[in-house]
């Protein structure tokens, strides 16, 4: 059994009580140690479905060793000794007393299939959490030579895990996670702000190029003012109206973009400093938007999977809704870059089995002569 400290032991506050799944795993292992033939009724899990190395080693030993004769098993501990010896190869801390304790804590051995389903559900939650964390980490990994492609590959890996969980726990319609989705991360990127200003100024100076970047949406820009000005530009272009800093400023006033007290002269100065090409800055903005969407999707799924009260059905429904946001911006990215690579999903680990019998990066932003 887990170590229970004495009242006079130090650092009691650092001891974390075991999660419910730990007790479920104990009950399942106890049932299988008591009645090994019940392994025939257990499916959907493997050794790596367990939350501790000791439990994983025990399940692996139980699954691989020949089962004992029921009559002999009831008389002696020979088979239990073999299980312990095999498991000790992977988990040195196991003892014979722990195996006997597992048998004692199992309330109903015939409930082994139900216990296994609970272990499978918790394992699904951990898998989803790990995949979401990998996606978030990828977005922030500055060492990656192709961050967009890598982030999309991790998004596909996350989607593969979701699909696998859905196959095991078909989602119920209308069942969404109870966990509130985290708000988007506030943008605080000086480079992004400067590049978006260049986009707006260059589009104002070369309005004929706006139609070629219709895949860029206002929400792709990091600041509300920039998003509003881009909407002004695309609206004027669609109407085939004259475009220059003054006409854009007037449209911005009509849309209430100056209601926060922003000085008109500030907007005019920003729109009067073009550089580079509209397509280049638009693609840079879309790239940032894709990575930001990937991060937010990862954090949403992470929040859902981090709440143990969510069922696998809820996790699947919530994760698929979050992944839909990446799918939408992926499509626009492919239009922007002229690439339509097939989605490459990393195969999810297969654990639902019965017990065994034996875009190239753009050039750097040009240096601006003046500000």
Considering the chains and any ligands shown, give keywords for the structure.
371 residues; mainly alpha; 13 helices; 56% helix; 0% strand; disordered N terminus
Structural account:
The protein is mainly alpha-helical and 371 residues long. 56% of the residues lie in helices and 0% in strands. The chain is built from 13 helices and no strands. Helix 1 packs across helix 5. The longest helix has 28 residues. The N and C termini lie far apart (69 Å). The N terminus and C terminus are likely disordered.
**What is the approximate shape?**
rod-shaped
Largest sheet: none
Order of helices and strands: HHHHHHHHHHHHH
Given helix and strand content, the structural type is: mainly alpha
Low-confidence stretches: 1-14, 345-371
- Percent strand equals under 5%
- The proportion of residues forming helix, as a percent range, comes to 55-70%
Q: State mean pLDDT (0 to 100 scale).
A: 86
- The count of β-strands is 0
Cα distance spanning the termini: 69 Å
Number of helices: 13
CA-atom Rg in angstroms = 29 Å
């Amino acid at each position: 059994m887990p170590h229970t400290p004495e009242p006079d032991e130090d650092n009691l506050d650092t001891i974390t009580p075991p999660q419910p799944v730990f007790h479920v795993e104990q009950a399942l292992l106890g049932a299988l140690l008591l009645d090994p033939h019940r392994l025939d009724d257990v499916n959907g899990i493997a050794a790596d479905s367990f939350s501790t190395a000791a439990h994983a080693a025990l399940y692996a030993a139980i699954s691989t060793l020949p089962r004992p004769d029921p009559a002999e098993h009831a008389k002696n501990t020979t088979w239990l000794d073999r299980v312990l010896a095999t498991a000790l190869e992977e988990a040195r801390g196991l003892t014979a007393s722990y195996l006997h304790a597992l048998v004692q804590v199992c309330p109903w051995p015939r409930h082994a299939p139900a216990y296994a389903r609970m272990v499978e559900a918790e394992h699904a939650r951990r898998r989803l959490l790990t995949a979401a964390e990998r996606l978030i980490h990828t977005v922030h990994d500055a060492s990656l030579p192709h961050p967009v492609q890598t982030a999309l590959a991790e998004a596909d890996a996350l989607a593969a895990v979701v699909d696998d969980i859905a196959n095991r726990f078909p989602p119920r319609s209308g069942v969404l996670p109870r966990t509130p989705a985290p708000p988007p991360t506030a943008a605080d990127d000086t480079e992004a702000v400067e590049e978006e200003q260049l986009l707006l100024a260059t589009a104002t100076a070369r309005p004929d190029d706006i139609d070629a970047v219709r895949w860029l949406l206002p929400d792709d820009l990091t600041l509300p003012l920039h998003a509003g000005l881009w909407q002004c530009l695309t609206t004027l272009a669609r109407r085939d109206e004259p475009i220059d800093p003054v006409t854009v400023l007037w449209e911005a006033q009509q849309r209430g973009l100056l209601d926060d007290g922003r000085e008109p002269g500030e907007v005019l100065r920003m729109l009067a400093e073009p550089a580079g090409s509209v397509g280049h800055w638009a693609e840079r903005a879309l790239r940032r938007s894709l990575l930001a969407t990937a991060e937010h999707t990862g954090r949403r799924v992470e929040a859902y999977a981090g709440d143990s009260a969510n069922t696998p059905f809820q996790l699947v429904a919530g994760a698929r809704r979050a992944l839909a946001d990446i799918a939408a911006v992926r499509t626009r990215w492919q239009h922007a870059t002229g690439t339509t690579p097939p989605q490459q999903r990393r195969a999810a680990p297969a654990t639902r089995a019965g017990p065994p019998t034996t875009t190239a990066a753009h050039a750097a932003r040009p240096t601006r002569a003046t500000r």
